[in-house]
Structure formats: structure tokens, C-alpha cells
């Protein structure tokens, strides 16, 4: 009886072990085939078998243990996947600065208008002040005055000038008429003009005329005259300035010579008159007293029939004025 109970318990235990082993085989494929096969033929030696039967389930227990750790290495694998998006984050960052260099590009476009500003300079040059001295006056003044500042040599303060041998026109009349036309022409071109006289009945020495130009802040002094000669065949226009060794105003030589050349070129081009030369001399008190670049314009010879009669006409007088204005334009244009 006891043996029967014992056998039943033993069989129940073996059955339990077999069920456990089957469960383990389902969880993890461990080769348990050889261990379950001898279970059926062993019932005869029932007494000795309980001892080995107990240890069989023990080795079956450890088998699932290695099966548990296998998912563990699978866990770390997603970990390296996480960091990969991290380097992807910085990529858009460098994309932000790209538009930044595009901003400065319009900057170089700004300076282009700056060089366009100097263009009006020639127009602003028209604001230069020109002093015009119509040579002579109705009544001359023979009182002496130094021919230059501090000079011991003297000359008459002012002469009445010559007379047209064929036209009968007085030089002081011709010079004022042309000077007024020159004033109008220069003002139309944008210059400021100062006249030393606007009528015939004045008493102004050559030194005083130069002082009027200085007091007005004139940039240049144009002294208008007509010429004469004992030889009636002599004709043509010329201008006069000081020499480079002038003892009174040598600092004005370079600009006075340039002004004389420019005005002579403009006058002869406009009138077709013969171009004589620029005469450099230190004997003219109207030049020696000057404090700004100065030239004396000898428009033509009133002792030459052709030139005398031409200078008496309104048309030629206008050409003289426009030609001198062209020369003054050229002089100031060269300053820019």
C-alpha cells in the first residue's frame, strides 16, 4: 500500500517534471529530447530513481536563465540609433548664416551714387566771381601813381585811351559796351560779376580798379582794352600778363598766364581775329597792383581799318564778349 502511494507520488512528480521541461522547451529551444525519452522505461527500479529524479528539474531550471539575458543585448542596440539624429540637428544651423552674406552685397551699391555727386562741380564753378574793368574813362587823370606796391617808378593814374581811326569810336566807349555784354553773358552762365565802372564819368586810377576786384573777392580780373599802332596794317588780338619775375605779384604769374592764354584762345576762336600772342611785361600798373589772377585783353587795333570798323558793330562786339566768356569758362573748368 505504501509502495503504491509512493509510486503514485513518484509518477506525479515525474509528470510534473516532464510538464516543466516541456514548458521550458517552448520558451527556449534547449535540446531536452534525450532526457525525456528514458522516463517511460524506468518504472521498475522505482526505489533508486527518486534520487536522480530530483536533480533533473534542477538543470532544467538554469536553462531559462540564459534565455532571459538574450533580450538584454537587444536593448542597447536602439541606444546608438538615438544619437544619430543629434548630428542632424546642427545641419540647419549652418543653413541660417547663408542669407547673412547676402545682406552686405547691396552695401557696395551705395557708394556708386557718391562718385555721381561731383558731377555738378562744373555748374558750381559758375559761382566764381569775375571782376571786369572797362579800360579808361571819359577824362583821363595824369596824376602819377606808383606802377606797383612800394615802387619808386610812377605812371599816370589813368589815360583816356585811343580813338578809332576809321569809326571815330572812343576806346573808353568801346570797352564799356563790350564789358557790359561780357557781364550779361557771364551772368547768364552763372557767374557773379563785379564791374569797376558802368559809365564814362568816373575817376578811377589803375591801382584803384585792382583794389575794387580785391575788395569784391573776385577770382579773376579781366581788363578790357583796344590797341593802336603807327602801322595801320597791324591787326589781331593779344593779351597781357606779368612776367614770372614780376617784383610786385610774382605769385600770380602762373594763373595769370593761364588765364591770358584761355581768354585769347576763346576770343580768336569766336571772332576769327588774328591771334597774336600773350605779352609778358611788368610795366602795366593795372597788373602790378592786382591781388588775383589778371589779364589785359587787347581786342584789336583801332588803327587798322578792317578791325576798327568790325569792333564798331554790335554783332562783332557780341562775338568778342562770347569769345572771352568761353575763355573764362575754359580757365575755370581746368581748375576742377
Task: Describe the structure in your own words.
With 336 residues, this protein is an alpha/beta fold. Helix content is 45%, strand content 14%. The longest helix has 26 residues, at 2-27.
Spatially, the strands of the biggest sheet line up as: 4-1-5-8-6-7
Structural shape: rod-shaped
Helix segment tally: 19
What is the CATH class designation of the largest domain? Answer: Alpha Beta
- Which fold name corresponds to the CATH topology of the largest domain? Aminopeptidase
Report the uncertain regions. Answer: 26-123
Q: Could you describe the largest sheet, including whether it forms a barrel?
A: 6 strands, mixed
Q: Assess the beta-strand content as a share of residues.
A: 5-15%
CATH homolog superfamily of the largest domain:
Zn-dependent exopeptidases
Mean pLDDT: 77
- How many structurally independent domains? 2
Task: List the topology elements.
Elements: H1 2-27, H2 33-36, H3 50-53, H4 57-60, H5 64-67, H6 71-74, H7 78-81, H8 85-88, H9 92-95, H10 99-102, H11 106-109, H12 113-116, H13 121-124, E1 129-134, E2 141-146, E3 154-158, H14 171-188, E4 192-195, H15 206-215, E5 220-227, E6 237-241, H16 253-271, E7 275-280, H17 285-288, E8 294-301, H18 305-311, H19 314-333
Parallel strand pairs: 1-4, 1-5, 5-8, 6-7
Antiparallel strand pairs: 2-3, 6-8
Amino acid at each position: 500500500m505504501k509502495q503504491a502511494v509512493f509510486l503514485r507520488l513518484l509518477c506525479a512528480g515525474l509528470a510534473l517534471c516532464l510538464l516543466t521541461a516541456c514548458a521550458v522547451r517552448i520558451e527556449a529551444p534547449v535540446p531536452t529530447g534525450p532526457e525525456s525519452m528514458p522516463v517511460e522505461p524506468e518504472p521498475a527500479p522505482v526505489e533508486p530513481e527518486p534520487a536522480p529524479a530530483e536533480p533533473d528539474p534542477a538543470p532544467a531550471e538554469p536553462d531559462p536563465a540564459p534565455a532571459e539575458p538574450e533580450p538584454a543585448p537587444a536593448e542597447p542596440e536602439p541606444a546608438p540609433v538615438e544619437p544619430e539624429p543629434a548630428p542632424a540637428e546642427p545641419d540647419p544651423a549652418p543653413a541660417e548664416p547663408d542669407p547673412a552674406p547676402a545682406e552686405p552685397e547691396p552695401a557696395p551699391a551705395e557708394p556708386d551714387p557718391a562718385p555721381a555727386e561731383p558731377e555738378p562741380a562744373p555748374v558750381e564753378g559758375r559761382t566764381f566771381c569775375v571782376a571786369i574793368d572797362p579800360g579808361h574813362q571819359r577824362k583821363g587823370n595824369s596824376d602819377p601813381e606808383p606802377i606797383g606796391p612800394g615802387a619808386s617808378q610812377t605812371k599816370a593814374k589813368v589815360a583816356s585811351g585811343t580813338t578809332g581811326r576809321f569809326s571815330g569810336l572812343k576806346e573808353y566807349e568801346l570797352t564799356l559796351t563790350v564789358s557790359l555784354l561780357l557781364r550779361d553773358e557771364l551772368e547768364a552762365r552763372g557767374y557773379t560779376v563785379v564791374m569797376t565802372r558802368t559809365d564814362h564819368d568816373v575817376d578811377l586810377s589803375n591801382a584803384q580798379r585792382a583794389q575794387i576786384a580785391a575788395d569784391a573777392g573776385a577770382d579773376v580780373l579781366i581788363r578790357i582794352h583796344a590797341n593802336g599802332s603807327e602801322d595801320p596794317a597791324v591787326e589781331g588780338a593779344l593779351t597781357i600778363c606779368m612776367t614770372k619775375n614780376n617784383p610786385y605779384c610774382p605769385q600770380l604769374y602762373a594763373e595769370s598766364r593761364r588765364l591770358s592764354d584761355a581768354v585769347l584762345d576763346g576770343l580768336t576762336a569766336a571772332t576769327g581775329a588774328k591771334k597774336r600772342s600773350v605779352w609778358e611785361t611788368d610795366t602795366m600798373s593795372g597788373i602790378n597792383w592786382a591781388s588775383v589772377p589778371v589779364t589785359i585783353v587787347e581786342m584789336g587795333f583801332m588803327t587798322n581799318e578792317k578791325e576798327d570798323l568790325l569792333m564798331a558793330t554790335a554783332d562783332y562786339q557780341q562775338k568778342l564778349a562770347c569769345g572771352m566768356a568761353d575763355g573764362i569758362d575754359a580757365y575755370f573748368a581746368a581748375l576742377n
